[in-house]
Design brief:
With about 160 residues, the protein is mainly β. It has one domain: Jelly Rolls (Sandwich). It is about 5% helix and about 45% strand. It has 1 helix and 13 strands, in the order E-E-H-E-E-E-E-E-E-E-E-E-E-E. It has a 6-stranded antiparallel beta sheet. A 4-stranded antiparallel beta sheet has the order 4-11-12-13, with no helix packed on it. Strand 6 and strand 7 form a beta hairpin.
Amino acid sequence: MRKVNISQVSETAQHSPKGTFSVFRKHISLALGGLKDVGVFGGGHPFDLELVRVPPNRAAWPFHSHSAQWELYVIISGKGEVRTSTETVVVGVGDIFIHPPREAHQLRNVGSDDLAYYVIADHALADVVHYPDSDKWFTKPQRKSFRMLEADYYDGEE
């Protein structure tokens, strides 16, 4: 068994250059011996658990969808707004929601205090994330961002 107290898990910060996106994360699964973006296929855990904190008037991440990954959210403090392709829903303390693969989503803090939540994500062998607002893509576990240029299937092969 591996055990850790949440107070002993270090918090990391990530901010976009212009400040639109700001997030503080406690990587609980990593503190318990998990590997970043690697499931049981590579010696990691079958899921990832993080404690996330988002400052007022910020979003943790851009609007995006995963091709393979599921994400379960548990709101523990603050007030947020979840944007999907079809609706925007207000969430608060005690709300629990899930985003299946291919459902675009974004959680934004719309309150005056920090928005805090747990997010549990499963680990697929690979995941491709699409950002509809910028038409950008991101691959995991490679952790590479790019924009696609459509090409014929055999282009460059012969």
